Amino acid sequence: MHHHGYVWTGPKARFDEEALRRPPYQEPPPAGSHPELARRYREVAAGFADCDLPPLETADWLLKPRSLVRGTWSAPGDAALWLRERLAEFGSRFASAADREPHRLEAVARAAEARLRWGGDVSLGHYLERPAFLSLALVACPRGPGARHRPCPLASGPPPDDPGRGPEPGPGG
Fold it and tell me: DSSP character for 153?
């Protein structure tokens, strides 16, 4: 098992575009459905996979383009270290003074590491100034027993223990 890391920052209003944060249903609307329903299905089907917005379900990050992966780690401690670094990087911009407290950030990172050690995902969200939003996620891959299958975004790429951070996020991501 390994974990993939994801970062998204952007305007809170864009984050609230929930239709683009949901994968489309497996089956399109039946023939004869209301035209608006069919139009929305096509929009979501075309937009979800290519959109950099964080998905509503953490595991659905694995359905996004591999270019959004910011790092992959086989050791939970290494993934947690990456999370600590992101919290340190963005912490001074958190809208809530309580969320900026160093002891709180460290407690969040320790709890995340414990969750990663048993194979869980970690998903954090923080309001930033302007108003903006930060989404951080670490996603277990492959998925555990009983979980819906999600393909590994790096299946044909570098090995899962590649500690590289990958490309730095650009605007909106």
Answer: T
Q: Give the tokens for residue 107.
A: 């407690």
Name the β-bridge partners of 127.
133
CB 154 within 8 A of CB 67: no
Backbone angles phi, psi at 99, to 5 degrees: -70, -20
Q: Tell whether pTM > 0.90.
A: no
Q: What is the 3-state secondary structure (H, E, C) of 86-125?
A: HHHHHHCCECCHHHHCHHHHHHHHHHHHHHHHCCCCEEEE
pLDDT (tens digit, 9 = 90+) per residue, 43-97? 777 778 788 999 999 999 998 889 999 999 999 999 999 999 999 999 999 999 9
CA distance 13 to 120: 29
The length of the chain in residues reads: 173
Check: CB of residue 119 under 8 Å from CB of residue 140. Answer: yes
The amino acid occupying position 28 is P
CA dist., res. 106 & res. 148, Å (int): 31
Structure tokens at 145: 């027993």
Residue 9 to residue 136: CA distance in whole angstroms: 9
